[in-house]
Amino acid sequence: MPGGALRRFARRATEASLAAVERCDLCSEAVPQQHRHLLESDTRQVACVCQACSLLFSQPAASLGKYRLIPDRHLYLANFAMTDAEWDSLRVPVGICFVTGACAFYPGPMGPTEAVVDPSTWAALVARYPVLGSLEPDVEAFLVNRARGARDHFIVPIDTCFSLVGLIRTRWRGLSGGNDVWVAIGHFFDALRKRSRVQRVETPACPSATT
């Protein structure tokens, strides 16, 4: 998904967090705070959908491939290990990022910023942890949290990542973000761990570098 489409989705996530009622983009039915999204294949736009519309478009034939229902898979990857060298090669200047394969994005007060993933690093991670190879292109991401000493790794839908981006945009204050945003980020990841299914991954011998 191009960075422009991701930023539009992030802005929408911010606006939705401030709105009293959010509605389905297809039928205008009110939707709860936790709802599904569609990705429009041609424009790369993301649409909010109610339960009835999400069920309809769970079958690709329903729209002849025009819309893709963003998955609802949330995995917490227990025992996952990434070396500091591998992390540095992602060229992410902050402690949180999500990777869609060729690109990584990190959240900030202005929205998501793109970083180019070193292909050899990503290939090495997929080789060690084949579950990363199961990511659905554009609609799922590998989410990493190394902020403030954390070492958490998830596979999540792309809309979960942008809920995080929206949270950061609305709560960030000053240069460092302020205490409130970091408390909110902590709560976000606590809730995400509770929501996610734990998948223990094999822990092969890591490359000889600091983990």
Describe the protein in words.
The chain is α+β, with helices and mostly antiparallel strands and 211 residues long. It has 2 domains: 3-69, no CATH class; 75-200, no CATH class. Helices cover 33% and strands 23% of the residues. It is built from 6 helices and 12 strands. It has helices at 3-18, 51-56, 84-89, 119-128, 158-171, 179-195; strands spanning 22-23, 30-31, 36-40, 46-49, 67-69, 75-78, 96-99, 103-106, 113-116, 140-145, 152-157, 197-200. It has a 7-stranded mixed sheet with strand order 9-8-7-10-11-6-12. The protein has a 3-stranded antiparallel sheet with strand order 4-3-5. Helix 1 crosses helix 5 (158-171) and helix 5 (158-171) packs antiparallel against helix 6. The radius of gyration is 17 Å and the shape is globular.
Distance between the termini: 30 Å
Percent helix, as a range, is 25-40%
Percent strand: 15-25%
Query: Helix- and strand-based class?
Result: alpha+beta
What order do the SSEs take from the amino end to the carboxyl end, as H and E? HEEEEHEEHEEEHEEHHE
Query: What is the count of DSSP helices, taking H or I runs of 4+ residues?
Result: 6
| Global shape | globular
Total domain modules: 2
* Global mean pLDDT: 84
Largest sheet: 7 strands, mixed
How would you describe the oligomerization state of the chains in this entry?
A: single chain
Number of strands: 12
Query: Biggest sheet: strands side by side, in what order?
Result: 9-8-7-10-11-6-12
Low-confidence stretches: none
**Radius of gyration, taken over Cα atoms and rounded to an integer in Å:** 17 Å
